[in-house]
Amino acid sequence: MSYQLEFRHIKYFLAVAEDLHFRKAAERLFISQPGLSRQIKQMEDDLGIQLFIRNNRKVTLTSAGSYLQREFTQHLTNIDNSLKYAKLLQDGKLGELRFGYVGSAMQRIIPDILVRFKEILSDVKFGFKEMDNQKQIEHLLSQEIDIGFVRLDRVPRGIAITPILKEPFCLVLPKEHAINESNYKNLLQLKDESFILFDPSYSPSYYEKVLQIFDESGFAPIVSHNTIHAASIYKLVENGFGLSIVPKSLQQGYDSNVKFIELTEISQRTTLSIVWNKKNRNPILHLLINEIAVESFINNE
Q: Which regions form coiled coils (predicted)?
């Protein structure tokens, strides 16, 4: 079976599928609305597939249309990535590597990786986006990023995950707080204090692990604030709005008037992992992953 499907048909279809409005899509494409309608009708006739349900009030995608929207979007993303890679090759670059990461990964792990492999990455263009765990998974599946640094225990099928750092937690207090390393015994000393924690949406599994720390310490925390940024946590702690618990690696990289006490008495550890889409064909991604000696990054403190 042969289809006379051209790139412009796909472009027109995706515009209507996104807007669900022929006039708006036509304006965005700089063509007339009747012309766009004819092109979509021709595409449907050529394929023998109804893509849209039309009536006077609204336009909706059929189930087949929704499927093709997802497939065409992914294929166009792959084409776009290939064209970008070709342009980088022409410009003397080996390629591009796009990172997603939670904030703690940028304090030491990502810089360490880049320094360690700077020779093989010297001609690579980098992109960096700080985002929560779920956003990274979404961006990996759509191949908007190549590699992520997450605090997750499970990932969807199609995503590979490898732990690179296992670390303890630290208690965060204002510098003038009466509790310090010399008189700290356990968290129960602080059961009447308020706590500022990373928002559960940032990583539900990480949030649950922190709550386990309180459970095993024998009390439920008074949670006064949730946020997704370490800098915000430290600023709130510094100004007396509560205490916090963070991964040890987040002691670095912030100029804040707070102090840290490592929670050596608890069993919980938090794991930072690298994740990537198994279908991602970026050669730089696989070069980097193959070069990383994972064992050398893991910290079993």
A: none
Phi, psi of 20 (to 5 degrees): 50, 40
> pTM, whole model, 2 decimals?
0.66
Q: What is the pLDDT of residues 77-128, one digit of tens each?
A: 878 877 877 776 666 566 789 999 998 898 888 998 888 887 777 778 889 9
Kindly list the domain boundaries of the chain, sorted by start residue: 7-83, 93-164+271-296, 169-268
Contact residues for 273 (Cβ-Cβ < 8 A; gap 6+):
149, 150, 151, 152, 161, 162, 163, 164
Reply yes or no on domain 7-83 having CATH 1.10.10.10. yes
pLDDT digits (tens, 9 = 90+) for 229-279: 888 999 999 999 999 999 998 887 776 789 999 999 999 999 999 999 999
Rounded distance, CA 13 to CA 17, Å? 6
> Within a 10 A sphere around the Cβ of 219, how many other Cβ atoms?
12
CB 219 within 8 A of CB 191: yes
* The listed CATH number (3.90.226.10, 3.40.190.10, 3.40.50.150, 3.30.420.140) that belongs to domain 169-268: 3.40.190.10
